[in-house]
Every structure is written in C-alpha cells, then in structure tokens.
Design goal:
It is a single chain. Helix content is 24%, strand content 34%. Mean pLDDT is 90; it is low at 123-128. By secondary structure, it is of the alpha+beta class. It has a four-stranded mixed sheet with strand order 2-1-6-7, covered by helices on one side. The protein starts with a helix and ends with a strand. α1 packs across α2 (41-52). It has a single domain (2-69, 101-126), classed as hypothetical protein PF0899 fold (2-Layer Sandwich), CATH 3.30.2320.
C-alpha cells in the first residue's frame, strides 16, 4: 500500500516537471526514497507503471534508490531497522527511538523527450 502512494507521488512530480520542461514524454525518473520501513522495489515499479498508463510517463524507467533508515533506541542504545514507521526497539521494547537519517522522497532528474525535432533533456525536482 505504501509503495502505491509513493509511486503516485513520484508520477505526479515527474509529470509536473516534464510539463514545465516542455517535454513530450518521460523516458526515465531518477531519485531516492528514504523511509523508516522496508520497501519493495518490485511493488514500487509495478504501481508506478500502473499509475503511468495513458500519461506522458507510460513506459518510463524508474531508477530510484530505496533506503531503509535505521533507528536507535534512546532507552538501551540498540540500533535497528524499524518496520511500518514504528520505532519499537527489538531489544527492550521501548518506543522511545530516533531515526538515524532523513526520510523523504527526492527526485534527482527526470529525462524527457523534447517536442518534435528535439532530443532527450533533463529536469530535476526535489520533494519531501
């Protein structure tokens, strides 16, 4: 489910950037997604392709780095990989934790096909 909403957000940002750049079609989307839970690359790509049908991003490559941001327990100091955005220490059970990195979505570049007579171009856009 989470991958579906991320895919939709990536698509919407990509389509907006491609329109600003005057691109005809999106060839590739590159960026990074950092979350405090495990993500499935296959699921993200599947949802992106499904949402992109009939848009300028249909057939675009999704080249996104997925980062699982670790957490640290403030009670016992254990470092662990959280699940489902819950900072629950697997050692002591405390919910008093902190994320050890920034979470969010960043689009580094969007490769677009220019209008007639043009070649591919790049635009970039960041989002959180």
């Amino acid at each position: 489910m989470h991958e579906a909403s991320l895919a939709r957000q990536i698509l919407e940002l990509s389509l907006a950037e491609a329109a600003r750049a005057g691109g005809r079609a999106i060839v590739a989307v590159r960026g990074r997604v950092a979350q405090s839970e495990t993500m499935s690359r296959e699921s993200l790509e599947l949802h992106f392709r499904a949402h992109a049908r009939g848009t300028a991003a249909a057939g675009a490559r999704l080249e996104v780095e997925l980062v699982h941001v670790p957490g640290r327990c403030r009670a016992c100091g254990e470092t662990y990989l959280p699940e489902h955005h819950v900072l629950l220490c697997p050692r002591c059970g405390s919910t008093d934790g902190e994320e050890l990195g920034e979470t969010g979505l960043w689009l580094a570049s969007i490769e677009v096909e220019d209008g007639p007579g043009g070649g591919p171009g790049e635009g970039s856009r960041g989002a959180r």
